[in-house]
Write a structure and sequence with these properties.
The complex is a heterodimer.
Chain A lengths: L6 E4 L7 E4 L4 E4 L6 E4 L10 H10 L8 H4 L5 E7 L13 H15 L4 E7 L8 H16 L5 E3 L8 E6 L5 E5 H5 L2 E5 L11 H6 L3 H4 L5 H5 L11 H15 L4 E8 L20 H16 L2 H9 L7 E7 L1 H16 E4 L3 E7 L14 H14 L1 E3 L3 E10 L12 H10 L6 H7 L1 H5 L2 H9 L7 H7 L2 H6 L2 E5 L3 H6 L3 E3 L2 H12 L5 E4 L6 E4 L1
Parallel strand pairs in A: 4-19, 5-6, 5-10, 6-7, 10-11, 13-20, 14-16, 14-19, 15-20, 16-17, 17-18
Antiparallel strand pairs in A: 1-4, 2-3, 8-9, 11-12
Chain B lengths: L1 E5 L3 H14 L10 E5 L10 E10 L2 H7 L21 E6 L7 E4 L15 H4 L34 E4 L3 E3 L6 H5 L1 H14 L6 E5 L3 H13 L4 E5 L3 H9 L4 E3 L4 H9 L3 E3 L5 E4 L3 E6 L4 H10 E9 L11 H5 L3 E4 L5 E4 L2 E4 H12 L5 E5 L4 H9 L8 E5 L13 E2 L9 H4 L1
Parallel strand pairs in B: 8-9, 8-13, 9-10, 13-14, 14-15, 18-19, 18-20
Antiparallel strand pairs in B: 1-2, 3-4, 3-6, 3-19, 4-5, 5-7, 11-12, 16-17
Helix pairs in contact in B: 5-6, 5-11
Classes of the chains: A alpha/beta, B alpha/beta.
Chain lengths: 529, 424
């Protein structure tokens, strides 16, 4: 049976309670009659032979690129850059798609007599990956062949000796990227696309760039004009990256882009109920839900976190395309849309969403309040094409515990941002002008980014800017079940229950508002007309 | 007349110490050596002494330490029992050249009050707080009024004071403002002791009465480049900001805030928590005086930076390795006298009066109690921060005699029914 497409359900009296993520737990909520629930399509069928598909893509590139094997020759410098720990979510079962693709590339490189090969994790301003994380992404064979010899690198956006300034775009944007990648005879970029924002020119122009370069598109103005940043054609974030990508090409960087898409099979069998529509839950699903919920409720927070972060998704490869960036990305987007697009007619007054334990920036870490905001107002709010699901002046209700809790190793500047900056103001333009530079250049954050496992000092700013479009658009943001102090620190309204939240929302949108619930998983992209 | 008297009673002193250690500060007063008693008027030690009838008398952190049995044995030879506590006093003079005037008392009992002539070098230089004859002369030992058997103290219906201790209070200054002059003078002295040139990064630990006054004094008398207050409770945070702190952080945020402010690197524990800075702020003013606060100061002050200890310490166990290795200057700031100001020498109390006026420090007086309710008053003072209060005072005025300060709460006693607004 072929997977069913996404659809919009209207809640009636017979609709069972709806499952919502609530951080490291779940809530079953009975939504008001008349509420629309947007369900994403079921996971589409994976490629039958992913390794063969990868080899085929490398041999049959898109756009004006030659097959990879013809680009490889003895004596050349080859750099293979790959997406970092932020993708995919949750981390996938071994073998990771990066391992499959890079093994195929390395096989061709070996066959072509290429000796000088370096792998680079394209961290941008993210934290460095640990050895176990690298080993998981690349597999034992690659890790053992490269890491001990210093040939498995992690991009360092603060290492001036290993950055090269390629010039300014016609908009005056600095393009500064990893020197090894830029000066290699061939740069192969291995991407994973789990949402439409990923990939394209953003892979190199952001993933291998410096703060000097990234700040041109990771800023409040750009984010307010990215409507949404999941829609490349209407995203200023992407427009800027595309300008940079073209300049990178004009500067002589030879790039062979490999992009992959995954289906939305995100959770293993024991959490299979997450992937199903509630009225189709079997007795086994109900039992799984009850057992999981009870166990989670009774477990200490640290254990719950460990359990969730140990989840390995059974994601499967649905497409792989390689060659020239723009042609490749067009095909990638078509495949992302094939999996995630849902048609929705009209906007809503109130948009509800349950937020999970994980986002791209807390893999094996803590979901701190800024990341909660970013996941809800950055990612989920922006998962639309056309118009936002919620009308201008409407309300977003997010369900998440939002603990006032940070991982000091991974997110040191987040703590200071939350304690010191948000205590002063939540205004994004004020924050950007008054505080960003000092955080971005703080020698302590630079040190931790380079030598420990810390996100760059400026990263919490970007996460806050990620919410810019939503915060400009919305009348109010309400968090159900969140730490009240943390919620208020961000300028949001706390509510104990969904019913309370809906009552608070009526102060903004009036009585009997239209309500739409963004149901996840599976992840979806709402095509709102 | 009525007075709260502190006896030398070792068993009760020990009981207070145990009670405060077990149940918290202020809890020792019920079992300790403080009692409300009837006392006779004190004899005058000399011709320049006058009687004072207190209007308001504050409860200070050092008073609480004494009542809790926490104060250092260092003071044993600097006090004489039984004494009547209370050194933050505004009252009316009976006799002498200021007869009938309202005054605040500069409580240090230096050479002049002790009838010692010529005065010691410190007193001669105007540094009465550093008097080298503090246990000698025609008074029994007592570093201040409120710790000396011969002078009495503010927690009573009457005491005596040497005329050199008196500062007349202008008519436009309320009793509540006047009672803040003594703590403000301590803060002024601390700010002057900090001796900063301007532009320094300064952190103030503690936001009780003393901490808040220090913030106001630093803002008024110095030109800190950045002034960060470390405050535990919401009302303290609000007041700290209002009195001039550029940034107010919670105690657990202190190291991170100092690091951010100074752009320092830091040494971390394995779990990423900052243990101490390698650089740090230029000056830390410790208005707490505990081992923990001093250790915090040492963790955040830069090499060759300065710590000014204003809060009264006791016996502390502190690792001084950073003090040694980073050549940190640690100096105390006690009491008042004459301050070297750019405009010339100034009497600390005069500067304090200006500060109280400019910063409207009368707003720090949160509640007034009659002497009879001294247990409640002490309990309130001991938990002031938690209860959104700052300065707790005894109100010794007859009903209708005084003016209530803005926002103060009259608790019990003959004035119980008179609210602040009504008083105004």
């Amino acid at each position: 049976m072929s997977p069913r497409p996404g659809f919009v359900l209207e809640v009636d009296r017979s609709t069972p309670p709806t499952l919502m993520w609530h951080g490291e737990g779940f809530r079953l909520e009975r939504l008001p009659v008349g509420t629309r629930i947007v369900y994403g399509p079921e996971p589409i069928a994976p490629l039958a032979d992913p390794d063969a598909a990868i080899r085929h893509a490398l041999d049959h590139p898109l756009g004006d690129s030659a097959p990879l094997s013809t680009l490889l020759r003895p004596g050349m410098q080859l750099t293979i850059a790959f997406d970092d720990i932020s993708l995919p979510l949750p981390p996938m079962r071994a073998p990771d798609v990066r391992q499959r693709v890079i093994e195929a590339v390395l096989d061709l490189a070996a066959a072509g007599g290429v000796d000088d090969v370096v792998l680079i994790a394209a961290l941008a301003l993210h934290r460095r990956m640990t050895d176990p994380e690298l080993r998981h992404a690349l597999g034992d064979r690659i890790f053992e062949a490269f890491a001990p010899h210093g040939l498995l690198l992690q991009h360092d956006a603060e290492d001036p000796s290993n950055l090269v300034h390629l010039g300014l775009t016609d908009h005056g944007e600095d393009v500064e990227i990893n020197r090894r990648a830029a000066e290699s005879d061939l740069l192969v970029y291995v991407n994973i696309n789990i949402v439409a924002m990923d990939g394209g020119h953003k892979s190199v122009a952001t993933g291998l760039a410096s703060y000097r370069s990234i700040k041109h598109h990771h800023n409040v103005r750009t984010m307010q004009h990215s409507r949404s940043f999941m829609d490349v054609r209407n995203s200023e974030l992407h427009t800027s990256n595309w300008r940079m990508g073209r300049l990178i090409a004009e500067a002589g960087v030879k790039l062979f882009q490999i992009e992959t898409t995954l289906n939305t099979d995100q959770f293993p069998e024991q959490l299979g109920f997450l992937q199903k529509r509630e009225w189709e839950w079997t007795i086994r699903d109900r039992a799984s839900f009850l057992v999981s919920s009870t166990a989670l409720d009774r477990s200490p927070g640290e254990l719950t976190r460990k359990v969730f972060h140990a989840v390995r998704a059974p994601h499967n490869l649905t497409s792989v395309q390689a060659g020239a960036v723009e042609a490749v990305h067009e095909s990638t987007l078509a495949n992302v849309h094939r999996q995630q697009l849902v048609e929705v007619s009209g906007q809503t007054d109130v948009l509800t969403m349950g937020l999970p334990y994980i986002c791209p920036y807390n893999v094996n870490s803590t979901m701190n309040p800024i990341l909660v905001a970013c996941l809800g107002l950055g990612y989920f709010f922006n998962l639309y094409r056309g118009k936002p699901l919620v009308r201008e002046g409407g309300v977003v209700i997010m369900s998440h515990p939002t603990p006032w809790e940070f991982n000091p190793v991974h997110h040191p500047s987040y703590i200071d941002f939350f304690e010191q900056v948000l205590a002063e103001t939540t205004d994004q333009f004020e924050i950007e002008s008054k505080y960003e530079e000092s955080f971005a250049t703080d020698p302590w954050y630079v040190h931790l980014y380079r030598t420990s496992y810390a996100y760059h000092g400026v990263h919490p700013f970007y996460m806050w800017y990620w919410c810019a479009h939503a915060l400009q658009h919305l009348g109010r943001v309400i968090v159900v079940g969140g730490d009240r102090a943390a919620v208020r620190r961000m300028g949001f309204s706390p509510a104990s229950t969904l019913a309370d939240a809906l009552e608070i929302a009526e102060d903004v949108v009036g009585r009997d508002p239209s309500i739409t619930h963004f149901h996840a998983p599976p992840v979806l992209l709402a095509d709102v007309t | 007349m009525k007075a709260l008297q502190f006896e030398r009673n070792l068993p009760r002193f020990a009981a207070a110490r145990v009670a405060s250690a077990v149940a918290g500060s202020g809890k020792g007063v019920r079992v300790g050596p403080l009692e409300l008693v009837e006392v006779d008027a004190l004899p005058m030690p000399g011709p320049d002494w006058v009687r004072i009838r207190p209007r308001l008398a504050g409860i200070c952190g050092s008073d609480l330490a004494t009542l809790d049995g926490r104060s250092s044995r260092y003071f044993e030879q600097l006090v004489s029992f039984p004494f009547v506590p209370g050194h933050e006093i505004v009252g009316d003079v009976e006799g002498g050249r200021l007869d009938g005037r309202r005054v605040v008392i500069e409580p240090v009992l230096g050479c002049e009050a002790r009838g010692i002539n010529p005065p010691c070098a410190s007193c001669a230089a105007g540094h009465k707080g550093s008097c080298e004859r503090i246990a000698f002369g025609h008074l029994r030992p007592g570093l201040q009024t409120g710790y000396c058997r011969d002078t009495g103290g503010g927690w009573s219906a009457g005491l005596i004071a040497h005329e050199s201790q008196l500062h007349e209070v202008p008519e436009d200054v309320s009793d509540e403002a006047a009672v803040m002059i003594e703590p403000a003078a301590c803060a002024v002295h601390a700010a002057c002791a900090a001796d900063i040139a301007g532009g320094e990064r300064v952190m103030v630990l503690g936001a009780g009465t003393l901490g808040l006054c220090v913030i106001a004094a630093l803002r008024s008398l110095c030109l800190p480049g950045a002034l960060v207050a470390v405050a535990k409770h919401p009302e303290q945070r609000r007041l700290a900001r209002d009195l001039g702190a550029d940034q107010v952080v919670a105690p657990e945020e202190q190291r991170r805030a100092a690091r951010r402010l100074s752009g320092s690197l830091a040494l971390e524990s394995d779990n990423g928590e900052i243990e101490r800075l390698t650089g740090g702020v230029d000056l830390v003013v410790d208005c707490v005086g505990s081992a923990d606060s001093l250790q915090q100061c040492l963790a955040v002050v830069r090499p060759r930076g300065k710590i000014v200890l204003v809060g009264m310490p006791g016996v502390l166990k502190v690792d001084l390795a950073p003090l040694w290795q980073r050549e940190i200057e640690l100096r105390g700031a006690y009491a008042y006298g004459i301050e070297d100001r750019p405009e010339g020498p100034r009497v600390t109390f005069d500067l304090a009066l200006e500060l109280v006026r400019d910063a409207r420090l009368e707003r720090l007086v949160s509640a007034r109690y009659p002497l009879e309710r001294y247990e409640d008053a002490v309990a309130h003072a001991a938990s002031a921060g938690r209860r959104g209060a700052v300065k707790i005072v005894f109100d010794l005025r007859k009903a209708g005699a005084g003016s209530g300060g803005p926002g103060t709460e009259q608790v019990g006693g003959p004035q119980a029914a008179r609210t602040t607004k009504e008083a105004k």
